[in-house]
Known about the structure:
Layout: H1 4-7, E1 11-14, E2 17-22, E3 27-28, E4 31-32, H2 34-51, E5 60-68, E6 75-86, E7 91-98, E8 107-114, H3 140-145, E9 151-153, E10 167-172, E11 181-188, H4 199-202, H5 226-233, E12 235-236, E13 239-246, E14 258-263, E15 267-268, E16 271-279, E17 285-294, E18 296-297, H6 298-302
Antiparallel strand pairs: 1-2, 2-6, 3-4, 5-8, 5-13, 6-7, 7-8, 9-10, 10-11, 11-14, 12-18, 13-17, 14-16, 15-16, 16-17
Amino acid sequence: MAFFAEATAVKAIDTHTYQGNFLDEWSIGNVPHGGFVTSCFLSATALHFHTTHAARNQPHTITLHLSFLRRTSIGPALFTIRDVKLGRRTSTVHVSLTQHEDKEPSVVGYLTQSNLQTEEGISLPTGWSLHPPPLPLLSTTALKDDNDPNWQRAHRLSTFRKAAARTKWYLPRHGQLAPAMADEWICLADGGRFTQRSLGFVVDQFPQIVEMYPAEQVADNGKKSGEEEAMRRTKWYPTVLLNLDVKKALPEEGVEWLFVRVRAKRIENGRMDLEVVVLDEEGDLVAVSDHVCLILSAERNMKRSGQSKV
């Protein structure tokens, strides 16, 4: 299996085109994980500004907006970048993802680059904090040993969600603090470290809010048997839209642990919003993200591309 850094790596085809590869182990069912795809967008844009626009010294994505138009698939992925605005402090590019022989993009987005280490300007305290506050953490060593009094390792992850197994999740030992909300500490299962390019994956790695509800509340109508029934009961949450606002630069060597809180405001008619907040070990705000997702049966995921469109 490929490490995260290897799996999200891209290579330049020319000054504005980059090649990646979506691997099965970083997927949900038959579809590449949306956060993994987002990190590949971050990698392609980072390489673009490291090479084509190196002189601008804008290595960090500070905002990202992605629209997932069609389901993606395992295999080669081509990122085409169009320079929209190249500026002294910030630059914005349009990035489109195409796969195989498809002419129409599967995912499109706008990313804004800057330099988080050289930014200057007015800074003011806001008094913002998470509410309710996260449970205290004894230490990351206690997390590793699974003996923190407030947090415990989550072991039972669905085999349908292969990408979820690529991280270790630590959840509140005595249950989540509020309905439609989940807190977690996460680290990469391969021993790697989270970097700026990992943030797309991080903001899409969390316990599924819908599955915190009683099973009878989320059951579909109709009955099937055997594997079809099990697949019908398993849910797929394809991303329609993902926004990312990066607040700080992680160390160049990355960090081992990050805290994530995800919260839904409304779940209705098979669609939900998600608000995601990422903190570092010191409790400093790293990034915020907003998603719009659909709630579908896993059957829709497992059909071949072209048979079922999201």
